């Protein structure tokens, strides 16, 4: 692990929503090639952490370093250009646009037509169903297909770090398994992934390491397998029978 480059470093991150102190001094590291997950209950601060890294929810205090560059005060569009892709909670696809048009929006920071064409091919290879529906309106896709599109759109920016916010939310169990298999495949192909997920059991199955968030603080960090075996984690997030 220590031989790998640290791609993301978060130190003492405090973030507020109005008067609500959502993040209370988060520390977080992600190394190149890792798949890291943040688990925790609703309202623990998982999505806020992702939003602050992406520049969508401005940090009040602390520092966010991406590939050696301080991005704490940068605009979301500039953070995307540096190499951070986001698949947001709730998918947020553009329903009136086609699959292809949605994907094209994901590549808005890029200029080289050949490289963009190569990314289209890669996304269609990862998600053959999107290739079949490339001319179809995104609003007519199923929930699982919309989730594939949201991840595919984030991949179109050719991210060095992919942020995934609750990709399994609202999906049927068989689709959840498929989405997690695809996330693992994306990671194995060389994209570093930071995964926010309420389905802690599935997330820890595919992750290298995990962070446990409780009310805006990191309460535990360990290898994913160790967290799966931890009694407190099992009781709180995996169900005591797991």
Automatic annotation (TrEMBL):
GO biological process: L-amino acid transport
Pfam families reported in the protein's UniProt record: ABC_tran
Annotated ABC transporter domain residues: 8-240
Alphabetized UniProt keyword annotations: Amino-acid transport, ATP-binding, Nucleotide-binding, Transport
Superkingdom assignment: Bacteria
Cross-referenced InterPro entries: AAA+_ATPase, ABC_branched_ATPase_LivF/BraG, ABC_transporter-like_ATP-bd, ABC_transporter-like_CS, BCAA_Transport_ATP-bd_LivF, P-loop_NTPase
An MF annotation (GO) of this entry: ATP binding
Listed CDD domains: ABC_TM1139_LivF_branched
Family: Belongs to the ABC transporter superfamily.
Protein known as: ABC transporter ATP-binding protein
